[in-house]
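Catalogue entry: protein

Sequence with per-residue tokens
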Amino acid sequence: MKKRLVTSRKAARALLACLLLGLLAWYILPFAFPLPPELLESPAASPVYLDRHGKTLLRLTLPDSSRASAFSLEAVPTDLVACTLAAEDKRFWKHGGVDLLAVARAARDSLNEKRITSGASTITQQLIKISSPARPRTSLTKLREALTARHLEMRWTKQEILTAYLNRLDYGNLNSGTAEAARFYFQKPLTDLSLAECALLAGLPQAPSRLNPMRHPQRAITRRDTVLHRLASLPGADPARISSALRETPTLRPLLLRRPAPWLAQSRFGKPSVINGKIHTTLDLELQNAVQNIVHQETEKLKSTNLRHAAVVIIHNPTGEILALVSSASWADERGGQINGALAPRSPGSALKPFTYLLAISQNHRLPSSILADIPTPFRTPQGLDLPANYDRTYRGPVTLRTALACSLNLPALRELNALGGPQPLHAFLQRLGITTLDKDPVPYGIGLTLGNAPVNLLELTQAYATLARTGLSIPPVLFQNTPPASQATQIFPTRDAYLIADVLSDPQARAPAFPPGGPLDLPFRCAVKTGTSSDFRDNWCLGFTPDFTVGVWAGNFENQPMQGISGVAGAGPIFHQTMLKLHRSQKPAWFNRPPDLVEISIDSRIGKSAPSTLSPTYLRHDLAPRDQLPAPAIPTDYDPSGKALLNHTFTEWFHSRHNLRRQDFALDTRPATTEPLRIITPANDVTLLLDPEIPSGSDKLRPVTNLPGLGIWKSETLRIEPSTPEPIIHLAPGTHQVTVTDPRTQVSQTFTLHIKPL
């Protein structure tokens, strides 16, 4: 009896020890196995670029080339949860991380079959496995995962575990997580999945490659049916729904990766702000797709001319935001399709001329009605004398600045830049406008800079035109939302000058001689536009704007092959035309308000002077001029007895050449040409004038005197100058002022200072 009692006590102690060891192994030992660091972090999500409305533009891949998108358990349909548990762990809600019943069953089956028939891993164990570094599949590894799973179960809720599991599962075809799998296989959000689709997805993680529904659809369906049968065996299953799901034929719609803006992955627009894996851009997806289609269609039409690529930039003028950017006609083109044509430096051709004339208006006191010489002109270069020509190899003689710019004549632009002092002023001006591709030294470009012999890229040139559209206000282009601007808005040139250039570029009548009506440059609303064609037809450009939008288009070949005689109006022009129409379907076209100091004038288009009352309507043109810079009135000595306008000796060679098709309009002035330079007789430089308040009128006005009355053009930034004949009237005010008079024949200016004090 005593011996039996001792044995019972030993057995009880052994049982207690086993119980304590079991409790230790179940509740204490798991804490010796830390959770995988990856599990403690948020599940990896592929960075996603979104448009301005939150629509997806581009999904990047993770370092392992997979795609994933994070979601909460609330976003997962109950059918998908039920199917996943039926497929992987039907007692998930009841066990503590290790399913002891499943372990016992697996051990029994393995003993009976003398081989391992199942692993009995729970969802928690699988989560530990996929979140840990790869290890050999040994019994020790399984034990480690089981204890770590117990650790996780004591720290996380079941909902947290299931959410982490569904976010990290491999569903094949480089799709990680349930949400990405639903998007890839069915192009649906999770909430729209049917029961049959939920069952198909739930079966894939067992063997994603072997069950790949794209390659082995029958295997995937067989696995789906297995999942549905398991679901049917669980309490609360609806036999009718499961039966219907078994009969459903899956409709797979594998996602074709359409990338409206593939260049975003290699963007050079600075570091964007990433918020919850999302990068918000200023692009508009609908517009981006529409412009991409326009580019594809128009380049297809011109393939026979060896034009294969084009790029487009659209800027919202008030904000500087980039609304669309098409980098090439086809990203898949093996011959350079993945080059970003908006950022590649190319020769802009005549697209730089507006900025030359902007400087001429500002510094040489030119007007749109000023007469320029379109005549053969040799220019000295480091290589010797150069005799440039116009695009059509003809010369028009005296033309207005409006005509020269609108018709994109080369010689007047070259002569104007030469009169400005060479390439330096334009070079510096372009750099202020944000052109970064120019060499530091402007001298090698020479005055050919105005014809586009320097490389620029489409984005920066479009931004320069957008500055014109903002009437001189420069705003850095913006691509990413929630990103501080690189610099502040800056007024680069006067509003009045910008308006005059925009007025010329939007004048279809002025450009009609070179660009006949009805072409791509003509729109059903007012729009400023300028084309450019590089030498040998290697680059086409078309840039323009309305108050709301600026559009820049480049067309050509990335490998620098020339096109077959395609100019900017024929190559880039149609893309520009279609893009502008698209933009203004939803935005009513408008035009700029005319600055109050610009007034309408009537001129004789042959000489650029104010038209006499007797002028024939043939030569009468209406134009704009600053109130303080009106053109001189035409006088009888400007004409011969028959009414022809007299040309000075500058035009002698042209007048007698085959290029002169205007002999009925002009005659040569045979009078000796004056070589006397313009001189200011009164007032003297640095003079001090006293204003007498006792004199009721007249003391605050000054009429200057020159040796060539009526010839000089007068201007002052601080004093009002009233046009008058033969010299203007300067309205005086206290202070120190500078007044400039310019001789339009030789482009020589003289500036003098007035000191005006009250008496």
